Amino acid sequence: MKVRVDPERCQGHTLCAMAAPDVFELSEIDGHSTAVNEDVPADQEDRVREAAKSCPEQAITIF
Ligand code: SF4
Which residue among 15, 18, 33, 56 sits deepest, i.e. has the most Cβ atoms within 10 Å of its Cβ? Predict the structure, then answer.
């Protein structure tokens, strides 16, 4: 499973980083999120799915 954050959509709500703190990293400059690593570790998959659901901007793509 892979994950990507669309930088155009992300508005820095931080919900993804709360759901999966080991996977999403927030910029210290603008608070926007990026995936630390596109490949999601197996034990993080449920958290990443939760994060994708909770993102108000639908900025998180799982593929
Ligand atoms: S929840 Fe969505 S909008 Fe908020 S920081 Fe994460 S990716 Fe960006």
Answer: 33
Q: Do residues 3 and 35 lie in contact, with contact meaning Cβ atoms separated by under 8 Å?
A: yes
Task: Give nearest CA residue, ligand 1 atom 8.
Answer: 10
pLDDT, one tens digit per residue, over 7-48 is: 999 999 999 999 999 999 999 999 999 999 999 999 999 999
Global pTM value: 0.94
Range of the domain at 46: 3-62
Task: State whether the beta carbon of 50 lies less than 6 angstroms from ligand 1.
Answer: no
Question: What's the chain's Rg over C-alpha atoms?
Answer: 10
